[in-house]
Specification:
It catalyses: adenosine 5'-phosphosulfate + ATP = 3'-phosphoadenylyl sulfate + ADP + H(+). The protein is of the alpha/beta class. The chain is built from ten helices and nine strands. Helices cover 34% and strands 15% of the residues.
């Protein structure tokens, strides 16, 4: 058994080819793929012009190899895919010596996710800001993941078609979960128009740690606010697939906090709405260690 080092064009590739012999996965510097192969198979792989097609990056050009490597058969590859993409194997969870409860004790609060959903212009970012400020003043640590902002970085490869929105929400849900694990009160404010996607994020967290806040503001109110002029563009047909205009928004059925637009200025003040969320957190014990 020998090791083959082959340069791959993509960074951080961890190669895993079950059936090719032993533990074929090694952590290596980016752009190197290391394989342990039985000597008799080495030639086939080394001669393959599209080697990294079998290196967990791109499986489309590997058909000719499947005869030699049954582990790469179509059925097997299907089993190794998640959401149509190939899934890494042989990854093992490492426990940390400091646990979530230690961090929560340190911070004197409990990690959770405040998920603010609603139409564009419903006031998600405003309430997220008011909430983080009010909690900060009480000595509580928050971090806000705003849909618009995350789309400038982590999610800059995503558009607004439905499968991209789903991926946007999934990634933000996973990041929010990490923040909650740190012990931080993570405020995620994004339209997140599909119930199924929000429920999927809820299911990532322990019971109670996902607090869904619905900005229940009628479309005509959001449209009259239109701070970015996007509704106007959508009505003019210049933006396609705009939520509430020609793309769906599915309101929550059972959210933890409902912030309903009543038209009454005093109860609809962002600061007052933030206090409603804080009361909820206080009652549930999230503001103590
Ligand atoms: N087609 C379309 N539909 C809805 N919104 C659009 C669209 N194109 C751009 N924008 C702007 O992007 C912001 C929404 O991003 P999100 O990440 O929150 O959306 S989603 O959760 O993936 O649906 C949203 O920000 P907010 O107004 O703060 O909600 C818009 O400013
Ligand atoms: N509670 C509120 N009452 C009145 N206007 C509000 C309220 N919350 C937000 N706004 C205004 O509505 C507009 C959209 O708010 P924003 O927080 O950007 O919404 P979203 O993040 O949902 O798009 C802004 O001009 C903001 O000042």
């Amino acid at each position: 058994m020998e090791k083959l080092a082959i340069r791959a064009s993509r960074p951080s590739v961890f190669c895993s080819l079950p059936g090719l012999g032993g533990n074929s996965q090694r952590r290596r510097p980016p752009s190197d793929v290391f394989l342990k192969l039985p000597a008799e198979n080495r030639k086939i792989v080394a001669n393959s012009a599209s080697f990294h097609s079998i290196s967990a990056v791109n499986v489309s050009a590997q058909a000719s190899l499947t005869a030699d490597f049954p582990a790469l058969s179509e059925t097997n590859l299907k089993e190794r895919r998640v959401n149509g993409k190939e899934k890494a194997e042989n990854i093992i969870w490492h426990e940390s010596s400091i646990c979530r409860c230690d961090r929560q004790q340190l911070l004197q609060q409990k990690g959770c996710v405040i998920w603010i959903t609603g139409l564009s212009g419903s006031g998600k970012s405003t309430i997220a800001c008011a909430l983080s400020k009010a909690l900060f003043e009480r000595g509580k640590l928050t971090y806000t993941l705003d849909g618009d902002n995350v789309r400038h970085g982590l999610n800059r490869d995503l558009t607004f078609k439905s499968e991209h929105r789903t991926e946007n929400i999934r990634r933000i849900g996973e990041v929010a979960k990490l923040f909650a694990d740190v012990g931080v009160i993570c405020i995620a404010s994004l339209i997140s128009p599909y119930r199924r996607d929000r429920d999927a994020c809820r299911s990532l967290l322990p019971e109670g740690d996902f607090v869904e806040v619905f900005m229940d503001v009628p479309l005509h109110v959001c449209e009259s606010r239109d701070p970015k002029g996007l509704y106007k563009l959508a009505r003019a047909g210049k933006i396609k697939g705009f939520t509430g205009i020609d793309d769906p928004y599915e309101a929550p059925l059972n959210c933890e906090v409902l912030l309903k637009h009543t038209g009454d200025d005093s109860s609809c003040l962002p600061r007052q709405m933030a206090e409603n969320i804080i009361s909820y957190l206080q009652n549930k014990g999230y503001l103590e260690g």
